[in-house]
Amino acid sequence: MAITAINAQNLYQNQLRPVWVQYEQGNPVQLPANLTINPSLNIDGGAVPGFVETTQGALNLPNDSLVWFCIAHEMSHHVTQSVLAASNQAFPAVGLALNSKMGEHVADLIAFHTFMTDFPIRAKQIVSQFPALTNLLGAGDNMHPSGNQRVLFLQSYYDAVTRFGMANVTAFTRLIGITFQSPAAVVPHHEWVDKTSRSILHTRSRQLKDVDTRLETYITNPVPANRLLLRNSFDTWFQHNPKERKKRNKGFCVLRLFLFLHDW
Ligand SMILES: [Zn+2]
């Protein structure tokens, strides 16, 4: 069901903003008191310091959870900017396209993480909308990763938190730290094997063993061709082994390798 402009404003002012301001304590630029609603029927939004916007098109989405996610995503862009500005950091100078894509993943992650901590029922509803969200975000462009990449990334985060618990919040903080030091570093081979191991009863799938081998090869000889082979193996494993991906994502090692291979 679509959300009216008045309800969206209420949602922003009374439910979301009071939670998101926790990220802006002590920062000079705070989230604006009001959400700006652009009459455009495109599904879009934007945020610059002191300004958060969403379109009427986004409010018209058929599922409330997707509307919540759209607004929260833009608010998360805002808090990312103010947190970085407050600590005198900027995105690293590694090319605008890369920075923008990284910014999208970070905003998705902050939005989703905050739903997990403060609106857990809503977070579950968003998870159930992941296929719709994938379609909605589409193929991506120079500034935006594809819907598939963005949702797989959130899925992996969700898997880790549901499997290993919210103690992973510290890991989340570290993860966000990692994202600001792009390009992300490769996960060392020994760490990968260690973090992804389970008991002796749980054998590694053939596809996971492929990742192990290609990771070792890449680390020994870090040339682009080996990186591509590693990425192909990783993506194949990632997409076809959800259980393994979920149960072996200790310390977000799966997410970290994902970030590295997908050009953060
Ligand atoms: Zn965005």
Short description:
The protein has 264 residues and is mostly helical. The protein is 63% helix and 5% strand. It has 13 helices and 3 strands; from the N terminus they run αβββαααααααααααα.
Report on this model:
The chain is mostly helical and 264 residues long. Among the domains are: 1-90, Zincin-like, CATH 3.30.2010; 189-261, no CATH class. The protein has helices spanning 5-20, 56-59, 64-86, 96-118, 120-128, 130-137, 147-164, 169-179, 189-195, 206-220, 224-240, 242-247, 253-261, and strands spanning 36-38, 45-48, 51-55. A 3-stranded mixed sheet has the order 1-3-2. Strand 2 (45-48) and strand 3 (51-55) form a beta hairpin. Helix 1 (5-20) packs across helix 3.
Order of helices and strands: HEEEHHHHHHHHHHHH
Give a list of the ligands: zinc ion
Number of strands: 3
Strand order of the largest sheet: 1-3-2
Silhouette: elongated
Features:
264 residues, mainly alpha, Zincin-like, 3-stranded mixed sheet, 3 strands, binds zinc ion
Mind sketching the topology for me?
Layout (H helix, E strand, L loop, with lengths): L4 H16 L15 E3 L6 E4 L2 E5 H4 L4 H23 L9 H23 L1 H9 L1 H8 L9 H18 L4 H11 L9 H7 L10 H15 L3 H17 L1 H6 L5 H9 L3
Parallel strand pairs: 1-3
Antiparallel strand pairs: 2-3
